Each structure stands twice: as structure tokens, then as C-alpha cells.
């Protein structure tokens, strides 16, 4: 008997509540923890961010990510907001890479990540960082190995369905945060 697929073992971005006030901070952080674990499956301890720290110190004014940013900005602080901007970029990068993977079943994972990098992150980086990023993207595992790790032997159709739900939730949240951050003048995603 196989283990449950990765996307059934972590909080899905599809299940993060979004209200009129914004994206629920605690649920978002729980889903982000799953993102960190996903990067561990890729062989990278890439994400560390100050959103959780800010939430722990000001949870009453940070129930949603939008309120978190407004509150921090009104206090003259920007560290957590800057971390959220970078995290949102990372979420968009991962989402696009996995969407490329899902939509192009014959393309290797490093190609999917390279396309995503070019679309989402490249314009934020200097030539030197771009060169390093290209090398890092090439280190992505083979597609079949990555899928085997996150599907954990589960039925392929079920895995694809869970991945699609997870990506739809992630896409909706990252687009919402991008719009909020940029339209509010809090940063550039």
C-alpha cells in the first residue's frame, strides 16, 4: 500500500480562507510550510522569511496578510512586508513552474523551472544573480524522480487532481497578493 501523495499531507493553498478583509495569515503560513517542505523535496532549503515572526508579535493586527502589511506600514516598519514580497515572488515562481510541468508532460523539470524563472524572477535580478539562478535551476531533479517523491506511489490521476487544486489555490492567492502589494505601493512583485 502506498503512502498518501505529498499534496494530501500538507495544508493546501486551495483551503486558505480568503475573506473581504484578505488572506487568512495562519492558514497561509501553514500552506507556506508545505511549500518549504516541497523545496526540501527538490533538495533545497531555500525559504526563510519573517512573515511568521511579525505575525507572532502582532497577531491581533495581522489576521490577514493585507492587514499585516497595513499594520506594519502604519508603524513605520517594512521588514515583514519585504519578506512577504519575496515570498510572493517565490510562490509565483513555484506555481508557474509546476503549471508548466503539468501542462507539458514531456518537458523536463529544469526546463519548467527555467521558463518560470524567466517569467517571474529574471527581471528582479542582476546579471550575476541570473547566471547563478540558471545553474541552480539546472540542479532540479529529473521530472520522474520529483513526481515519484511527491506522489509517494499514489494513483497518478489522484495525484494530478490534488496538484491541480493546490496550484489553483496558490495561483489565486499569489495573484491577489501581487495586486494588493503593487496597487498599494508596498513593493514590486
Layout: helices, strands, pairs:
Elements lengths: L5 H4 L8 E2 L2 E2 L1 H17 L9 H7 L7 H10 L4 H25 L5 H12 L6 H12 L4 H9 L4 H28 L6
Antiparallel strand pairs: 1-2
Helix pairs in contact: 3-5, 5-6, 5-9, 6-7
From the structure above, extract its key features:
189 residues; mainly alpha; two-stranded antiparallel sheet
Q: Would you write up a description of this structure?
A:
The chain is mostly helical. Helix 5 (79-103) packs across helix 6 (109-120) and helix 6 runs antiparallel to helix 7. Mean pLDDT is 85; it is low at 43-48. The longest helix has 28 residues, at 156-183. It contains 9 helices and 2 strands, in the order αββαααααααα. Strand 1 and strand 2 form a beta hairpin. It is globular, with a radius of gyration of 17 Å. The chain is 66% helix and 2% strand.
Helix content: 55-70%
SSE string, helices as H and strands as E: HEEHHHHHHHH
Number of strands: 2
- Classify the beta-strand content into a percent band: under 5%
Number of H/I helices: 9
Order of adjacent strands in the largest pleated sheet: 1-2
Average of per-residue pLDDT values: 85
Please state the overall shape, judged from the principal axes of the Cα atoms: globular
User: What integer value in Å does the Rg equal?
Assistant: 17 Å
Amino acid at each position: 500500500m502506498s503512502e498518501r501523495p505529498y499534496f494530501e499531507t500538507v495544508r493546501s493553498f486551495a483551503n486558505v480562507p480568503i475573506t473581504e478583509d484578505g488572506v487568512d495569515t495562519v492558514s497561509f503560513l501553514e500552506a507556506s510550510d508545505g511549500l518549504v517542505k516541497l523545496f526540501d523535496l527538490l533538495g533545497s532549503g531555500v525559504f526563510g522569511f519573517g512573515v511568521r515572526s511579525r505575525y507572532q508579535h502582532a497577531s491581533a493586527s495581522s489576521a490577514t496578510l493585507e492587514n499585516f502589511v497595513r499594520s506594519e506600514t502604519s508603524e513605520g516598519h517594512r521588514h515583514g512586508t519585504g519578506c512577504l514580497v519575496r515570498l510572493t515572488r517565490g510562490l509565483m515562481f513555484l506555481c508557474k513552474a509546476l503549471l508548466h510541468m503539468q501542462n507539458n508532460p514531456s518537458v523536463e523539470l529544469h526546463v519548467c523551472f527555467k521558463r518560470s524563472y524567466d517569467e517571474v524572477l529574471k527581471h528582479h535580478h542582476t546579471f550575476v544573480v541570473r547566471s547563478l539562478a540558471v545553474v541552480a535551476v539546472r540542479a532540479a531533479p529529473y521530472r520522474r524522480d520529483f513526481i515519484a517523491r511527491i506522489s509517494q506511489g499514489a494513483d497518478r490521476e489522484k495525484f494530478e487532481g490534488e496538484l491541480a487544486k493546490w496550484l489553483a489555490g496558490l495561483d489565486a492567492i499569489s495573484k491577489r497578493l501581487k495586486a494588493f502589494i503593487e496597487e498599494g505601493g508596498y513593493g514590486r512583485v
